[in-house]
Amino acid sequence: MLIDNQIHIAVLDLYEGVVNEGMRGIRQLIEEFEADCHMMVKYEIFDVRLKAEVPDLNFDLYISSGGPGSPLDSEGSLWEKRYFGLVDDIRAYNAQHPEKKKHMLMICHSFQIFCRYYGYGVVSKRKSTSFGVMPVHKTFEGHHDPLFRSLNDPLWAVDSRDYQITQPNMEKIDAGGGALLCIEKFRPHVDLERAVMAIRFDEAFIGMQFHPEADAVGMRMYLLREEKKELVIEKHGEKKYWEMLDHLNDPDKIMLTYATVIPRFLMIALQHRLRTLSL
């Protein structure tokens, strides 16, 4: 709970012990946010998949990470039961306390299992891995969403996935007051449905397929790994690989996404909580 000038954040780690840059990026963004907002920010990390750890409701907002492996194979597992027990509790709390909702942001793997569990879209394995710095196209609603409206169209983000979400359930999204915000790049010459890249489920819940926590330093380390370099060159060609490295230095690409999406999520959630204290 928010006490005086203190905000509590729960970080749900779904990386299952795999070494990654995602958690470093999330921690770094929270610490940068604390320095910028001049408030005491406390965050706690929960090892969801290895230890089946989940937080309680005594947090102001929640960030759920990406992670490795299939978003389909874990269905019915202990950690998923506890994870969605928490999500159900947060959604029930928000329904009972509409004036002081708890906010939640879901990244990549978290977004996939959320869409699968609640029926917001079809989760399936891609024909090939998508990895690199990619353009992400905004829908009309995405142009106006507070997390994305100041970003270019397409915005640029780090994509790293073997699975995708297609066939979004627009009836369910609309019923919750949400919107489809971003999709894969336009490819009118390719007879494949474009995958969903971001959905706002309601005022407090949002998820995205790409990695808004990825920064230029971490992505450069990934791209310079021999296996990642070979993957990108095999799929996109050597020219595209060097373009991706160049994009990392562009302030209008992933540097802008990194500096915008999660910081704005944190600020909106904080402003919402501060407003409730004055009611």
Question: Can you offer a commentary on this structure?
Answer:
Helix 1 links the parallel strand 1 (6-13) and strand 2 (40-47). This protein has a 9-stranded mixed sheet with strand order 2-1-3-4-9-8-7-5-6, sandwiched between helices. The chain is built from 10 helices and 9 strands. The longest helix has 24 residues, at 254-277. The chain is globular. It is of the alpha/beta class and 279 residues long. It has a single domain (6-125, 140-148, 166-214, 257-277), classed as Rossmann fold. The chain has helices at residues 22-37, 48-51, 78-96, 109-118, 140-144, 170-175, 216-223, 226-236, 238-247, 254-277, and strands at residues 6-13, 40-47, 61-64, 103-107, 122-138, 155-166, 179-183, 196-200, 205-208.
Offer a quick outline of the entry:
This protein has 279 residues and is an alpha/beta fold. It contains ten helices and nine strands. Strand 8 (196-200) and strand 9 form a beta hairpin.
Keywords:
single chain; about 280 residues; alpha/beta; Rossmann fold; nine-stranded mixed sheet
